[in-house]
Each structure stands twice: as structure tokens, then as C-alpha cells.
Amino acid sequence: MKQIKNFIDGQFVASKTWFDKRSPVDNTLIAQVAEAGQTDVDTAVKAARAALNGPWGQMAIADRVDLLYGVADEINRRFDDFLEAECADTGKPMSLARHVDIPRGAANFKIFADVVKNVPTEFFETATPDGRGALNYAMRRPVGVVGVICPWNLPLLLMTWKVGPALACGNAVVVKPSEETPQTATLLGEVMNAVGMPKGVYNVVHGFGPDSAGEHLTTHPGVNAITFTGETRTGTAIMRAAAEGARPVSFEMGGKNAAIVFADCDFDAAIEGTLRSCFINCGQVCLGTERVYVERPIFDRFVAALKSGAEAMKLGRPNDPSTGIGPLISKEHQNKVLSYYQKAVAEGATVITGGGVPKMDGELDQGCWIQPTIWTGLGDDATVCREEIFGPCCHIAPFDSEEDVIRRANDNVYGLATAIWTTNLARAHRVAGRIEVGLAWVNSWFLRDLRTPFGGAKQSGIGREGGVHSLEFYTELKNVCIKL
Ligand code: NAD
Ligand code: 6OD
Prior knowledge:
CATH superfamily of the largest domain: Aldehyde Dehydrogenase, Chain A, domain 1
Shape: globular
Bound molecules: nicotinamide-adenine-dinucleotide, (2E,4E)-2-amino-6-oxohexa-2,4-dienoic acid
Number of domains: 2
CATH architecture of the largest domain: 3-Layer(aba) Sandwich
Number of helices: 17
Radius of gyration: 23 Å
Distance between the termini: 68 Å
Structural class: alpha/beta
Largest sheet: 7 strands, mixed
CATH class of the largest domain: Alpha Beta
Helix content: 25-40%
Mean pLDDT: 98
Low-confidence stretches: none
């Protein structure tokens, strides 16, 4: 049986307690994972601190940048190992992970190495009463030991999205991957050793949230800052822990994202984009669409086209090139999504397609499969129109005016992302400006430039990461004032 260990101070470390990792594809046991206890987490935090006090803390930026480029190159060299591990943990199609998860895992190190190498700080000449003046300049310093708490939906991508900038800024990290997806974070430990990353700069502790590695990490007084991606409810608990010691947080959390489709859109592009935003990664993307508002003149045509697109997506194994959708991450999540499917019907939805668990062949029937599902006919206050489901499903509702759809899209506690489909440029600007979200895509979805600010408004997040914005969280900006 494969064993997945913690990675602490450059060593793979076993544990007294192990937990099972099962395949979402067919429920087979694929590994046993070492659960980090309080002592393991403490050792990891101390190793990170020691790294900051050692050669890592003194390293010239150019050398740090070279190391991070080395990490990216080594991920690419071991591309197939990462691909295999990520798809085994998540069940997602290899065709998807090959183009999104793994390349972004490498790119996240290069982009932030480039940012740190190239971003200047400010300088002011200051007049003083004695006429001799003063010079003020700013310098960036690492915040220290950063706790990184990660979800399971895009494990390598989202973990490196935090670890890349944290290391580029000279911090040391202790990562707590999701209990559902322990493998790629562990593999990254091998990469760190292979490129000569100093021991203790990158540590991984496995386990769960409450009373386990997650809570041990977020409550550890040696952790200077916490960056988290996951559910808003979890973020709330972590924020309480971070309050002790007044430690800064950066949070990327849940969403209930609306797509807005105007009658003047490029219809085929809107269908293609909405199919992706609703169903890719089996709907387990924080930016994904679960509410679709379509202008009434094209409503029926849109519903019919989205239905046929959804029904054409083949459910299957990760390594089958014809697979469009994999399973959900776990039995627990399958039950949660299914309970929403049942609630939609109980509240009066018309099921356009899907609505349940499909019958799969052979051992696949033991997996966490779910049908891509489309509903119509519900009011905006229905449960499936208000709460994040995180599955391959959406409700489609008609709208009659720009004003009306902006109000309805904004009427939610979340504010992560939107996709606006229109060929009217003035309208695109207008609507993008008025939707209460951190990310507004026009005629596209999940089109990423890693230099741009990424994060959520309202209950979808705190802070922004990406490009220079990551520096605000991962560094202390210090002013030096020199009296001449
Ligand atoms: P989750 O909140 O259940 O878990 C995330 C991580 O937090 C896991 O590692 C978990 O073990 C840990 N955790 C749980 N309780 C904890 C506690 N009390 N203290 C410390 N750590 C704790 O989220 P998930 O189910 O893994 O991921 C799905 C959620 O993540 C969805 O809500 C989705 O919208 C959100 N998400 C948001 C973004 C974004 O960028 N905004 C990206 C991906 C996922
Ligand atoms: O692309 C990114 O940088 C990012 N953080 C994506 C988040 C996707 C959520 O599931």
C-alpha cells in the first residue's frame, strides 16, 4: 500500500496515526496518509523558522529566483508523475489536468519569481526645516512563517498559487493540503530537495481541519500569517484562530457565481463558455457558474443548447481521452450535492437534464459519480439559487432588463466571479462595473493572467493575490527614513 508521509525539514516523516485515501473513481483504497499531530506541526513550524534564520533568510533575491525557476523546471520534468498523482487523488480527467492543473503548478513559481525580481519600491526626497532634507525609501521583507491551508478541487494549482509568492518573497511555509488530495503537495517535497531548496523552507503536514493538522497549524503561535482557500465557513473558523496574536489572513472562499447572457451575445461562444463554467472539473471550481441568467428572447434556445451540450459530456476514467467529466471528490460530497438535487425538485424545479446519480459500468459504480444537471422554473430565493453547491449543476432563469439582472446577480452573500456574455461593449463595461464581484469576465471564463488581482468580494474572500498584489500579503513593507 502506498504511504504518503509528512514532509518536514527536508525529510519524509511517518506518523503514529494514518488515514485512508480512497479513489473517487471506484472507491478503491489508493494510499494511507500520515496524519500530523501537534508535535509534528510544531516541528514543521520550528523548521520553517530555522530556515528563515539560516541561509534562506540571507539569500540574494537573484539566487532565490533561480531556485524557484528550478522548482518550475523540475515540476515540468516530472510532469507525468504530478499528472498521475493529481488524477488519482481527484479522479479528474487527465486531459484537463494536463492543460490546467500541472502547467499552472509550474507557472505559479515562475510568475512570482519574475514579479519579485522586477518590482521596484518607492522613494521620496523629503524637505526638512534645516534645509538638509531626508530620503525615504521602502523595502520589502518576508512576513515570516506562512501557514498555507488548501482545498481539494485544484490541489497543486491552488497550493502553488500561495507557495510560489510566499517563497518568492523569502518566507518559509507549512502547507496543510486537503485530506482528500495529499499527493501532489508531498511530491513537491521531492522537487524541493532535488533543486536544493534549503531544508525547512517548504514543509507539508497532512490531516484534517478541526482537532487535527489544520487547527494545529492555524493556532500555532509561531505562524506569522495564514493564507487559506476553501469554504467560507472554514475561513470564519480560521479567522477566529488568527485573531489570537492578530495575525494577517488572505482568504479565497466560496461563491455562487452568476453568468449573464444577453440576447446580443455570440450564442455559440456563450454556450461553450457556460458549459465549461458549469461543468468543468465536475463543477468543483470556485469560479464556476451555478446561476445562469439569460435574456428572455434567447432563453428557450439557450436552455436547449446547454442541455444538449451537457448530455454530450461523457463521464469516465481520468485516463480515457474521451472523458469530459470525472466524479465528485468523495462520497460525503456526493451526498451533499445529491441532497441539493433533491431539494431543487422539492422546491418545484423543472429538471431539464440529470438530477441524480448515474448507473456506471462495473467497479466504477462504487465511485462518487453525479449527473450534470440543469434546472429551470425556480425563484431566485430557492435554496439551489442561493447556496453554493460545488457540483456540476446550474439553474437557468430568464431576465428582461439590464437593471433587473444586475440587481438579481448581486442579491447574494457571495461575490467571487461573473461571466457576462454580450457583443455590446458599452453594456459589457457598464455591467462589469456594477456586479459585486472580485472577478468579472466578459465573453470568456477563467481566462487567467497571473499578474492580475485575484480574489473575492463580500463573503467570497479577504484580500487579493496575483502579480504585485501578492506582495502586499507576503511581505512587510518597511519605510527607511535617512536624515541628511
Ligand atoms: P474546506 O473549507 O472544507 O477545506 C479547506 C481546507 O481547510 C482543508 O485543507 C481542510 O482540511 C481545512 N480545514 C477545515 N477546517 C479547518 C479548521 N477548522 N482549521 C484549519 N483548517 C481547516 O474546503 P474544500 O471542501 O476543501 O474546498 C471547497 C471549497 O473551497 C468551496 O467552498 C470553494 O468555493 C472553495 N474554493 C474557493 C476558491 C477561491 O479561490 N475563492 C478556490 C477553490 C475552492
Ligand atoms: O487561477 C487561479 O489563480 C485560482 N486561484 C483559481 C481558483 C479556482 C477555484 O477553484
